[in-house]
Amino acid sequence: TAPGPRSYTTLRDEAVKLFNSLQQLESERDPVPLMQGVLQTCLDLPPLVDEIYCQLVKQTTEPPAPGGQGDLHYWQLLTCMSCTFLPSPPVLRFLRFHLDRRVPSRFPGSEMAKYACFIREALGKTKGRECVPSLEEILVLMRRQEMICTVHCPGAPACSVAISSHTTAEEVARELVSRLGLSQSPNLFALYEQSRRREQPVRSATLLADVLTRFE
């Protein structure tokens, strides 16, 4: 299940806890729940977003084992951060320098360089999330891939749509209208989310990744 409400102490104490989580991440066999926990703390306590970005830049600048499991775990969390939060302008400039200069020049063609390229592109699209990435989304982001979203259409077979962390409901609805040959229809189309308790339209600007997290 997705993380529920948490109780927090002071920002300083929570920053120390996050630092300890990053240290643990390096040797974690299954890093996904730990990554989601870090993301949830940042969502609940926005002042810590810059702190985590700075710590991740530091951890990926002079890794003891470049390209090793621990190093890649840091890059994977940095990838998830970039698809969820934007840092403040000064930290963003610092991060872009790290992604544009340090990594590609030192490790060209490496996994780290590929993550750096992915993160750089993601930062240009990220506007903020209502929910942290689901466990499935984190796994997909760790592989720098897209998620497959299944949409059930009345009177037509279910459609599978590839989405990213930045895909909106309007973009998916537009693609489905095109696939189903309804582009000339005078009707309006929208996506709906349905649970056991309710059915409601998904706002056009809503990120589909947030909807999937709520279902998780």
Give an account of the 3D structure:
By secondary structure, this protein is mainly alpha-helical. The protein has two domains: 11-142, MyTH4 domain (Serine Threonine Protein Phosphatase 5, Tetratricopeptide repeat, Alpha Horseshoe); 147-215, Phosphatidylinositol 3-kinase Catalytic Subunit, Chain A, domain 1 (Ubiquitin-like (UB roll), Roll). The protein contains nine helices and four strands, in the order H-H-H-H-H-H-H-E-E-H-E-E-H. The chain has helices spanning 11-25, 32-44, 48-59, 69-82, 89-106, 111-123, 135-142, 169-179, 208-215; strands spanning 147-151, 159-163, 192-194, 199-201. The strands form two sheets. It has a two-stranded antiparallel ribbon with strand order 1-2. Strands 3-4 form a two-stranded antiparallel ribbon. Strand 3 (192-194) and strand 4 form a beta hairpin. Helix 1 (11-25) packs antiparallel against helix 2 (32-44), helix 1 (11-25) packs parallel to helix 3 and helix 3 (48-59) packs antiparallel against helix 4. The longest helix has 18 residues, at 89-106. The mean pLDDT is 90.
Helices, strands, pairings?
Elements: H1 11-25, H2 32-44, H3 48-59, H4 69-82, H5 89-106, H6 111-123, H7 135-142, E1 147-151, E2 159-163, H8 169-179, E3 192-194, E4 199-201, H9 208-215
Domain FERM: 147-216
Pfam families: MyTH4, RA_2
Domain Ras-associating: 145-216
